[in-house]
C-alpha cells in the first residue's frame, strides 16, 4: 500500500488544487489542507494532532508548501510528525524562524559556494563604506529576503540620502540589511530543484542590465525569457550544492554569470519559490514533479 501524503499551507488550500490534480493523474493518495484546519484535544494522556479531523500520524509524508504567518501551527505539526516518525519537508529553519539572508550567505560561503562579495552591518556603515568595500553600484538588500521588493542599487547621491533615511527608520524597528558587489550580469537564471535533481530552468533579464550593456544601432539588446535546455553542467553543480547547503529538498536557486569577470554566483536559495514562470516557459508541471518525489520517499 502506498503511503498517504499531506500537503499543507498557510492561507487558503485552494492554492493547492494543482497538487490534487497532479496526484489524480499519477494515482497517488494525497490530501491538501490549510494550517487553520489543525486541532487537538488533550484527554486522558492521549494526544492526537488532527487536520480536518484526521490524525496527522496517518500520513507517511508531509510537505509544507508555505508557512506565512502560521509559524506556530507549522512548528506544532512538525514536532508531532517527527515524534511519529513521519518525513516532513521543508522545515529546516522553522525552529529559528525563516533563515535570514545574512546567515544563508554565510553558510553558502563557508561551504565553498561562490556568492558576491558581501558586507553585513549597520545602515550607516553600509552607506559610508559600501563603495570602498564593494565598488560602484553596490546592491543593498534586506535580510528578510522578501523577493525584489527589498533590493536597491543607487545611481545618485539624492537617491542614496532618501533610501538611507528610510532604511535607518526600518533598522530602528529591528530590520537588518546587507550589501553586495554589483554583478555585471544581463541575465538571471532560476533553477528549480526537487530532491537531487534540477527539473527545470529558465532565464530572465536582470533589472539593472541597462547600466552596462552597450546599445546596438541605438537599441538596447532584448533580454531573453526562455527555458534553459540543456542545463549547463557547472550551473547544475553549484545549484545542487547550494540547495544541499540550505538543507532544502524543494527549492528555487538563482544563478548569475558576471560578464566582466567570468565568475558564476549564487544569488539566492528560496525554500518556497514561485514556479508559474518555470512551468510556463519550460513546459514542466512542477506539481507533478513534486508529487512524484514525495511518493518516492
Automatic annotation (TrEMBL):
One of its GO terms (cellular component) is cytoplasm. Residues 105-295 form the ATP-grasp domain. PROSITE patterns: ATP_GRASP (PS50975), LIPOCALIN (PS00213). This is ATP-grasp domain-containing protein. It comes from the Bacteria. Keywords: ATP-binding, Nucleotide-binding. InterPro entries: ATP-grasp, ATP-grasp_RimK-type, Lipocalin_CS. PANTHER family: BETA-CITRYLGLUTAMATE SYNTHASE B-RELATED, RIBOSOMAL PROTEIN S6 MODIFICATION PROTEIN. GO terms for molecular function: ATP binding; ligase activity, forming carbon-nitrogen bonds; metal ion binding. The keyword Kinase does not apply. It comes from Candidatus Blackburnbacteria bacterium RIFCSPLOWO2_01_FULL_40_20.
